[in-house]
């Protein structure tokens, strides 16, 4: 597996991966209208259409998020030897695999954002392309502040509940301006627990080391073991148990690397 920078033609692949992961994420299930079936029965045209609409909505949100200056998206692509091993595995397994585009199999992605005003931060934020940078920032910011107007899979009332709880939770805010934030990390469910997430995380850890800054991430319960294993500390936690009626505790943990 290797990482390469995101290209526009990866949008469908990364949206499909996120949509699949969201199906088992209690928080995403709370604020998304996602009673969809990722492996639709070809006889049930309605299912297939609903799933496609859901992935398209997710794609719109992701594409707008990536526009924000200082945002870097990496995709994880299988190498030839991984594909061979995977083909053998798939012969024995059910479920659709990750998306193949241009003969590449994209199995995950990460979205990072560089905050700050140092020369290094401005380099990541596209210093020098002022007009396009501002337009992109405006569009991306609008999307966030109006809470994803182009994403029909979002339940806006529940999203507002989620965001308000995050904001009012007893969590520390980043005190340092110069930092990396990990905005998203998704590995296709069929490819999890093979070390891909850890390797994707490594890019940010190396950057943070070189730039002598910390990394902040607001982690799902599913992500937390990976961050703990990779040297992050938990500095706060928001509980969603009372608004999400789920059988297990649901939290978002604020994790920081470089404390
Ligand atoms: C969280 C996620 C990115 C982890 O990716 P991954 O490729 O499965 O992670 P790795 O295989 O690199 O895991 C490295 C280590 O992290 C820990 N870890 C990862 N997932 C774990 C899990 N579900 N339970 C316990 N430990 C886990 C383990 O120590 C693991 O090492 P091991 O497999 O040798 O025990 C992936 O499960 C995912 O995409 N989940 C859905 C989306 C999500 O919640 N993303 C996090 C957003 S903050």
From TrEMBL:
Stretches the record annotates as Disordered: 32-52
InterPro entries: Acyl_CoA_acyltransferase (IPR016181), GNAT_dom (IPR000182), Trichothecene_AcTrans (IPR052523)
Top-level lineage group: Eukaryota
Membrane spanning residue stretches: none
Domain N-acetyltransferase, residue spans: 178-257
MF terms (GO), sorted A to Z: acyltransferase activity, transferring groups other than amino-acyl groups
Protein known as: N-acetyltransferase domain-containing protein
């Amino acid at each position: 597996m290797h990482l390469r920078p995101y290209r526009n033609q990866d949008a469908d692949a990364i949206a499909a991966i996120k949509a699949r992961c969201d199906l088992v994420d209690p928080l995403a299930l709370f604020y998304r209208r996602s009673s969809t079936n990722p492996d639709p029965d070809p006889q049930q045209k309605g299912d297939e259409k609903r799933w496609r609409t859901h992935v398209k909505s997710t794609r719109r949100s992701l594409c707008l998020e990536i526009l924000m200056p200082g945002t870097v998206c990496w995709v994880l692509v299988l190498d030839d030897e991984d594909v061979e091993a995977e083909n053998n595995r798939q012969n024995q397994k059910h479920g659709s695999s990750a998306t193949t585009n241009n003969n590449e199999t994209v199995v995950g992605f990460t979205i990072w954002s560089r905050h700050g005003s140092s020369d290094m931060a401005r380099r990541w934020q596209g210093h020098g392309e002022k007009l396009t940078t501002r337009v992109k920032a405006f569009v991306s910011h609008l999307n966030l502040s109006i809470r994803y107007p182009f994403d029909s899979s979002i339940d806006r009332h529940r999203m507002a509940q989620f965001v308000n709880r995050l904001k009012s939770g007893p969590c520390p805010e980043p005190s340092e301006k110069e930092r990396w934030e990990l905005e998203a990390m998704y590995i296709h469910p069929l490819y999890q627990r093979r070390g891909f997430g850890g390797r994707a995380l490594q890019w940010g850890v190396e950057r943070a080391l070189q730039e002598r800054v910390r990394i902040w991430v607001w982690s799902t319960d599913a992500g937390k073991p990976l961050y703990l294993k990779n040297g992050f500390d938990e500095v706060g936690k928001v509980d969603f148990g009372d608004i999400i009626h789920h059988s297990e505790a649901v939290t978002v943990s604020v994790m920081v690397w470089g404390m």
